[in-house]
Design goal:
The chain is built from 6 helices and no strands. By secondary structure, the chain is mainly alpha-helical. The structure holds heme C (HEC).
Length: 140
């Protein structure tokens, strides 16, 4: 048990170091954004068609993609912008990512329980988290 936990920790920090080393371009991020917009549409379609599989697929896509959002190489290399990221925006981004993952879990649970109203409420909270970042950070 302890051993596997330790192994997981080491693997995770190695991954973090590797991803921090770069390789995330503006093109990558735009693609991730488009993937997330598609996932949001899928979730919405699942609501309207009352199709749990479509909702779950959209939730899965969005969950996998939101955690990838981070500063692109050009921002990391621009000390001014990167500093700003580190000071404010990274913290905000982490918070938003956590909140979106949480609300995605709510959608999964509520929709499976037949509570479409609550699921829709969680959905709209996700949309407002997307917009929160767009309003503040899109001027990057
Ligand atoms: C941490 C900040 C952040 C969050 C959170 C975020 N976005 Fe974005 N989004 C951006 C930035 C920055 C751009 C501009 C990307 C560029 O043009 O380089 C963008 C652009 C986009 C675009 C336009 C892509 C294109 O084709 O030009 C879409 C669509 C989009 N976001 C959807 C979403 C959705 C849906 C969510 C929530 C699930 C979301 N975004 C959450 C920062 C964010």
């Amino acid at each position: 048990m302890m051993k596997s936990l330790l192994k997981l920790t080491i693997t995770t920090s190695m991954l973090t170091t590797m991803t921090m080393a770069g390789g995330y371009t503006q093109g990558d991020r735009i693609l991730d954004m488009q993937k997330m917009a598609q996932a949001m549409q899928d979730i919405q379609s699942g609501f309207f068609y009352n199709n749990e599989d479509i909702v779950k697929a959209g939730v899965k896509d969005l969950k996998e993609t939101i955690v990838k959002i981070r500063p692109i190489d050009a921002e990391v290399n621009n000390k001014d912008i990167y500093e700003k990221w580190l000071n404010n925006d990274l913290k905000m981004t982490n918070k938003i990512q956590k909140k979106i993952v949480q609300k995605l879990e709510d959608i999964d649970e509520r929709f499976s329980d037949g509570d479409a109203v609550q699921a829709l409420q969680a959905y709209s909270k996700i949309a407002s988290q997307c917009m929160k970042c767009h309003v503040r950070l899109r001027k990057w």
